[in-house]
Design brief:
12% of the residues lie in helices and 44% in strands. By secondary structure, the chain is mainly β. A nine-stranded antiparallel beta sheet has the order 1-3-4-5-6-7-8-9-2. The radius of gyration is 16 Å and the shape is globular. The model has no long low-confidence stretch (mean pLDDT 87).
C-alpha cells in the first residue's frame, strides 16, 4: 500500500455512465486527486495504516469527493494488465479493452485496492457510488510504468435502500 502514499493521480480517460457524475469535473479538466496515508497507533505506539484521505485543487474533482476516506482492502496484487503502450489518446481503445478484459479480477474481493463510498446528485436525486482504486505496477511500457484504474459502481437512492445501477471506469498514471 505504500505506493499510494502521497501520490497524485490524473485520469487520462473516463467512460461509462457511472463515470459521468463521479469523475466529471466542474471545470471540465481531467480529474486529479492526491492520496495521503492516515495511521492509527496501537498500545505500543506502533503505526498501522488505517486509510487514505484525498485532496485536490479546486474544480479538479466533483464536490462529493471532499473529505472522502479510502480504505485498503484485499491482498492479491493486480497483475491482469501489462505491456500497455505509453498513453496517448490514440491508445484509448487499447487501454479500455485491457481494463475491460480484467474486469473479473477487478471485481474479485481478494484483489488489493482502495475503496470508498462517494455521494453524488443526478437528476435531482441523491445517490452513492462505490469507488475502487487499483494500482498496477509496471502495466505500461516506458518512463511512466504504473497505472491506476478507477472502477465505479453507481447506486441510486431508493427509499431506505441502495441498489446497484450502472458501472463506470477511469484510468491514469500516478505521479
Amino acid at each position: 500500500m505504500i505506493y499510494w502514499s502521497h501520490k497524485t493521480v490524473t485520469l487520462n480517460d473516463t467512460w461509462g455512465p457511472g463515470a459521468v457524475h463521479t469523475l466529471t469535473t466542474p471545470t471540465g479538466l481531467k480529474p486529479e486527486f492526491s492520496l495521503h496515508p492516515r495511521y492509527l497507533r496501537d498500545q505500543r505506539g506502533n503505526r498501522h495504516l488505517g486509510h487514505f484521505t484525498i485532496d485536490f485543487p479546486s474544480g479538479f474533482m466533483p464536490d462529493g469527493w471532499q473529505s472522502v476516506n479510502f480504505v485498503p482492502l484485499g491482498s492479491a496484487a493486480v497483475t491482469a494488465i501489462s505491456g500497455l503502450p505509453p498513453w496517448d489518446p490514440s491508445q484509448q481503445a487499447t487501454y479500455r479493452k485491457a481494463i475491460d478484459a480484467a474486469s473479473g479480477v477487478l471485481a474479485d474481493s481478494r484483489t488489493l485496492r482502495l475503496e470508498a463510498v462517494i455521494p453524488y446528485i443526478a437528476l435531482g436525486s441523491l445517490g452513492y457510488n462505490r469507488v475502487r482504486l487499483f494500482y498496477l505496477e509496471k502495466a505500461v511500457q516506458g518512463l511512466v510504468e504504473d497505472l491506476v484504474v478507477v472502477r465505479i459502481a453507481t447506486h441510486a437512492a431508493v427509499a431506505g435502500t441502495v441498489q446497484g445501477r450502472q458501472e463506470g471506469t477511469g484510468q491514469g498514471p500516478p505521479h
